[in-house]
Amino acid sequence: MTQERSALAHTTVVRVATDGRPTSGDRVLTAARDTADSVPVVRTGPTGITAMSPLLLLTSDGRTAFYGDPSPSAVRELVGELEGGTVPTAAADAVVDHDPDTTTLPVPENGPLSTGQRHVLGPCGWAAPLHPADWSFVSTDQTAEAATDAGLLGRGGRDAATDAPVASVWETARATEGDPVVVCNANDASDLPTGDETLLSGAPMAVLDGIAAVAEYLDAGDAVIYVNESQTDLQAALREAIEAAADTLPVVPQLVAGPDEFRASEPTAALEALEGADRIEPRLQPPVPAKHGLYGRPTVIHTPRTFAHVQRAIANPERIDADATDPGTRIVTVTGDVADQATVELGSSGSLATAREAVEMDGPFKMACVGGVLGGITRSLDVAPTAQSLRAAGLGTDGVVELFDSDRCAVETVGKRARFASEENSGRCVPGREGTKQLTELLRDVYDGTFESEKIRELARVMRESSNCQIGEHAPRPVTTAIDEFEPEFRAHTNGRCPSGTCTEKL
What ranges make up the beta strands (E) of 277-395? Predict the structure, then answer.
C-alpha cells in the first residue's frame, strides 16, 4: 500500500511510534504495512517511553489501543482485526477513549505513559513528525510576544538564558545594534539522554515553529540549528523536517553540525564552533551573546526544549500560569540503573519523585543525580521540578534524573564525575583547568586515608564563584552534595572500606 505520511488526517489509522532511528521499529512497521489494505499506517516519533518502543497504536473513531513492542505476527493479527472494523483490545497494554480530533497522544489511566503531563510532549508519538499538515503553525501570523507575557525561563544547561526569563534576553538583543540571529543549541555530547532529542525526533515542527516565532519577534532573518556531528540520523530527519516546512515558516533555519565534545555544547562555545574556531572554548563574558554573539551579531541561544515551550505558550497562552515562579512544565529524562529510560513532562506544582513511576529500577533505590553529569546527588526526589526548588536543594536543572541502586558507591560515583570534568574542560580559566584537577586529587586522597571535607568545600566555593565555564562552575556540585548525603561513606573509605562493596581501586 502507499506509505501515508499524515496521522491526523484519518479517524482510523495505525501508528508505529519509534525512537527516531531509521531502522527502529522497522519489523513492526513492515508487518503493519504488509497487512494493511484500506487502513493507513504511519510512522510517528518517540513517545519518550523507551520500554514501550516500538509502540503500536490502533485508532478508530475515538478509541485507541496501545501495544508495546509487539511481535510481527501479533502486529499482523492486530492490524487485520482493525481492517475488519474493530479496535482490538483483548491483550492491549492500554485502551483509551478520546476526542476523534485530538492532536495530542491520548493518555492512558495507568502505566508509564500516564506519568506526569503531556503538553509539550503531547504530539510526540501521535502526530507525524515530518509532515507539516499534522501541525498548526503559530509563527505564520504570530511572534513570540505571548511567551514574554508568560514569563518563561530558559531550559537546559545549553541555553544562554538557563533558568532566567527569556524575555530579558530577547529585549537585550532587540535593543542592540546589528542584525540579530537565533541559534537553537541542540549539540549534546553527553552520554546521558535529554528531552531535546525526544522533541527533535517526535515534534521537530514545534521546535521549528518556536524558532521562527522568536526570529520574527526579533526581526531576525537568520536562524541556525546546531547539532552534534555524530548524530547523523537526527541530522537527516531534521533536514527533511526543515525542507518540508520551508514553504510554511517565515524564517527557515540552517542546520549546522558541531564537534562531538562535551565542552562544545556550552552556549558561547557553540558560537565558537559555528564560527569555525580551531579551539572550542567558552567566551569570556560580558559581553553576553545577546549583545555580541555569532560573528559579533546580537544572538539569542536557546535549547529545543525552550523553543518548544515558546511555541506552546503562543499556541495555548491560557494553559501557562504566568503567576508561577517557573511557568510551564519541565521535561525530564529518567535514566541510570533502570531497565529502560523514559522522558516525561512534569508540572511545576508536582514532585520530581513522580518521574520514578515511568521506569523500573534494577535494584533498591539509593540515590539520584539530578541535573546531568555534573548535577547534584540526593537521597530524596521529593522536590518540585522548578528551577527555584531544584537550585535551593543543590540540584541541577538540566532535565536529567539518574537513579542509582544500592550497589552504587557514592564516593566512586562522584569521583568519576570529577575526573570527567578535569578531562573535558576547555582549559581556558584556572578554576576549570586546575580546580577540577585539584578536586579529583582530593577525592583520590580519600582512598589513601585522607578526607579533607572543609578543603573540598572551600575549593568548591572558589570554583563556583570564579569559573568562566559551566564545567568549572558545576564540577564541585556532585561532590559537595554527595558529602552532605553520604559523609559516613567517605570516612569509611579512608579506613579502606567501601560500604557498597564496589570500590576495588582508586579513581
Answer: 299-302, 329-336, 342-347, 365-370, 376-378
Let me know if residue 6 belongs to a domain.
no
Strand order in 222-228's β-sheet?
A: 254-258, 222-228, 181-186, 299-302
C-alpha cell read off for 366? 539509593
Structural domain tally of the chain?
4
pTM: 0.95
What would the grid cell of residue 445 be? 586522597
Please report whether residue 349 resides in a domain. yes
Report the SS3 class of residue 124: coil
Decide: residue 145, CB within 10 A, 0-12 exposed, 13-18 middle, 19+ buried. middle
Model confidence pLDDT, tens digit, residues 430-443: 877 899 999 999 99
CB 395 within 8 A of CB 388: no
Residue with the three cell numbers 521537530: 204
pLDDT band of 467, cuts 50, 70, 90: confident
Residue 504 confidence (pLDDT) above 70:
no
**How far apart (Å, rounded) are the C-alpha atoms in residues 475 and 431?**
10
Pairing of strands 299-302, 365-370: unpaired
Grid cell for residue 492: 569509611
Q: Are residues 152 and 300 in the same domain?
A: yes
DSSP calls for 192-258 = S--HHHHHHHH-HHHHHHHHHHHHHHHT--EEEEEEETT-HHHHHHHHHHHHHHTTT-SSPPEEEEE
**Per the structure block, which three cell numbers stand in for 183?**
541559534
Q: Give tens-digit pLDDT for 212-264.
A: 999 999 999 999 999 999 999 999 999 999 999 999 999 999 999 999 988 89
Containing structural domain, residue 193: 145-318
Report the alpha-carbon distance of residue 187 to residue 204 in Å, rounded.
Answer: 15
Distance CA 24, CA 19 (A): 6
Same structural domain, 178 and 233: yes
Asked if residue 289 has pLDDT above 60, the reply is yes
CA distance 161 to 3: 41
Q: Is residue 499 part of a domain?
A: no
Rounded Cα gap, residues 162 and 144, in angstroms: 18
Task: Classify the phi-psi angles of 456: left when phi > 0, otherwise alpha if psi is within -120 to 50, otherwise beta.
Answer: alpha
Q: Grid coordinates 570534568 are at which residue?
A: 421
Nearest-angstrom CA–CA distance, 403 and 179: 45
Domain boundary among 261, 288, 318: 318
Q: What is the dihedral of CA 61, 65, 68, 74, to 10 degrees?
A: -90
Residue 414 to residue 476: CA distance in whole angstroms: 9
DSSP for residue 435: I
Domain check: are 202 and 302 in the same one? Answer: yes
Local confidence band at 505 (pLDDT 50, 70, 90 cut-offs):
low
Give, as one character, the DSSP assignment of residue 332: E
